[in-house]
Queue: 2 jobs
Job 1
Amino acid sequence: MTMNKTIGTHSGSPLIALRGVGKTFASGTVALKGFNFDVRAGEFVSLLGPSGCGKSTALRIIAGLSEPSEGTVEWTSSRAPVNDESRIGFVFQEPTLMPWTSVFNNVLLPLKLKGIPIEKARARVVAALDRVGLKEFGRSYPRELSGGMRMRVSIARALVTEPTLLLMDEPFAALDEITRFKLNNDLLQVWQALSTTVVFVTHSVFESVYLSSRIMVMAARPGRVFTELKIDAPYPRDQDFRTSAEYAAFCRRTSEALAQAMAAQDTAAGGAA
Amino acid sequence: MTNAPAAHSRDRTLRIVLPIVVLALGLSLWALVVWIGNIPPYVLPSPELILQTLVSDWGLLFQSLLVTLATTVEGFLLAAVGGVGLAVLFNQSRLVEYSLYPYAVILQVTPIVAIAPLLLIYLPQPLAVLACAWIVAFFPVLANTTLGLHSVDRNLADLFALYGATRGQILWNLKLPAALPYILGGLRIAGGLSLIGAVVAEIAAGSAGAGSGLAYRIAESGYRLNIPRMFAALLLLSVAGIVIFYLLSAINYLALRRWHESALDQER
């Protein structure tokens, strides 16, 4: 069995590099300190850690929604022109849809904001909705959909610009387990079909192992990378993988790493007190 | 679980029937008191006489109703445009907000009854009445719209920033739609207040003569001890207020029914 073969074709070449990134909020809270992180093209990488470890902050810094207090964020791939807003798709913890308009218009939004005329955008919106299995729901309003379907719309909206990098901030945390498993599978499919790059923030060990080719385990106070784990099980992954001994072993290792990360932060906090 | 639709429809029937029963009881009691006490019409007219007066004076009263309604609608429209416009301006420029907001508040907290006589000195009478209707009606629109423009979902605002939206795009595609429920709430209040402003100004202008609105009719009938006509004019004013309120409620419902909590069916 060849490992990693099915990970995107550009896997390995760096896409974005964070060097010594720190973020201190006006309140004095140090969310991130000395954060080093490379995202390689085509990979599915998770930021895993307890709340307060700065994983969401890191994601916002990559997206350019938040400025780092120190350090640098560099796009290293020539495939990602710096001024092209289509390079990033962002999926929030909540579906974050505009309740006052239809599913179609919600997915259309990124293209509309970029001034793409509706005749040209229509086919792309329909394709994005199709990709998440919601082709028939363009006319519905967000309120009329279930939580899982709303999250699908949110993912379709992030995909409609065909982003180089898809950033996801605990997108499935609020969903029930059955829906979450289904969306995990669909997300992996979309990722492979589009050979895009995903940075996925989560606090679930099981979810991060199932999805990722690489996991950055983070510790809090101050937020930093504690250790890095490679999940070199082949894709496509499915229900068989979820119930395999291999998956269980990866989960055990990841849980141990996370436990060590939390022990380290408790010691650090104890030492400071 | 037993017959939920039936219970629902019975509830709706009660909501319509009960107020009518109360009205009928009240009117009967009123008529009874007038009849038993043999009270003369210039002290307290019977409901029947008020209705007769409404029919016999219909030409005059309807003409006056149109005058008052015209002022109310004009004042309301100016308040809607002015309130929303000023709120948008405040939202776009902090300097303008800091400079003007205190004066908007002053205009609001000073009782309109006290301002009306002054306005009547400086402005021609129809314009003064319109100004009063506008002053009382515009502040709720301004305050509500301001609140609405500030109540944008933070993540949605981030999303717009991520896609490099311009200020105009953010205002038109995000802030104004998010503020719509608040704006409509403000307009619903403004409709009623606009009528009140118009009436207050007409009463204040009453002695100045030229007025012919409903409130002026009430004042005039008072001087002439034509109490039945006072009641008839008052009845028309109430009906006008109710119609305005329900008209704006209907617009509110039609605009929000597909997405906003306030306009959704309560049943789940």
Job 2
Amino acid sequence: MELATSLLSGNRRALARGISVVETGGTAARALLSAVYAQTGRAHIVGVTGSPGAGKSTLVNALALHWRRQGRTVGIVAVDPTSPFTGGAILGDRIRMQPLCGDPGIFIRSMASRGRLGGIAHATSDTIDLLDAAGFDVILVETVGAGQSEVEIASAAHTTMVIEVPGMGDDVQAIKAGILEIADIFVINKADRDGAEATMRQLRAMLHLGGPPRDGWEPPILPAVAMREEGIPTIAAEVERHLEHLRDTGQKADRERARAAREFQLIVQEAALERARTRLADAGWDALVAQIAAREIDPYAAAAELLD
Amino acid sequence: MERKIRVLVAKPGLDGHDRGAKVIARALRDAGMEVIYTGLQQTPPMIVEASLQEDVDVIGLSILSGAHMTLLPKIAQLLHEQGMDDVLVVAGGIISDADAKVLKEQHGIAAVYGPGASTHDIVQFIQENAGTRKA
């Protein structure tokens, strides 16, 4: 498969085209992912989430610069919401990453959620696989958190970072949105503002309320001023330490097995459905649906007959 | 999943007047397109590299500084070198009719819109001309 070969050899245009293919989905997407799958599994996948305006893009930019200086390559996926009214989107995360422009060790892709509940995780997960196969050492995935789709994207990441800012009542947010459960690292950005210490204390108190650390990892709470690149080396070090922890405790292997199980199930479901629909053709499918609606047959028997 | 039209909106050079670009970005979003807004002070290599990574169908360039005859041909040249001739390039700003003619005839710019152009016309042009994907 030409596109796959090109992508795997480092051709950036092929990578960009490949991402468009997996965003659209369908046969071509499956063929591409199938062709590159053996080359995935090497990258460290880091999810970055938090409220709009918390400074995620600026922080992603700073972390990428830091890792670049260490000679690591970085892929970035920036996800923004699609307007539910118009179906369009303004993807403005790149604008915060100007210093990364022109660096061949960086690849940035902006992605709109396209109103797919949970489906956004599909396209994002596939894009992560392509960046992984293309050889990037670290893949940063930035989303506006945290809803259902963010939780799903978090399950594709090895390390999930939640960004808060001081004194915005974010302590209440954190409890409501289930952020405490998905965060491996907390960053208090804009830490030069009033209330930063108080926010860190509140967050620490809430974490302790939740009982002993999950899986032996106590999430660090780290201050930063991303715009001035302050606090970045510590954050990067903690991200790396988290991956080591996952490796040492066998959790990395567990998570990857769980992810593979989830994805395989989804893929089989999709494939079975598509096969059934192809066998029937639209007319046959619609006729069956009409029979079911008229109570002439029940959907369970119809499905069993179709799949056997 | 139907394909969305992806548009990169950029201001090349040192022109700081971005109201027009933002109005266009919003109009395109309202027409269902995905707009990658890269903002001010973009160099031609930055614009072409971003367009490549984002696999856009369209590039929208806003220039009011008068530097369009230097910057736009440069961008067109870089696109050609990258094999990206299938990307639709649309320009807007303060560009004389004479310059617009040269840009369209000699540098592959598909359309040039000046002050007073309707966003409806721009949207329609893009929808009709953003090419179908070649693999």
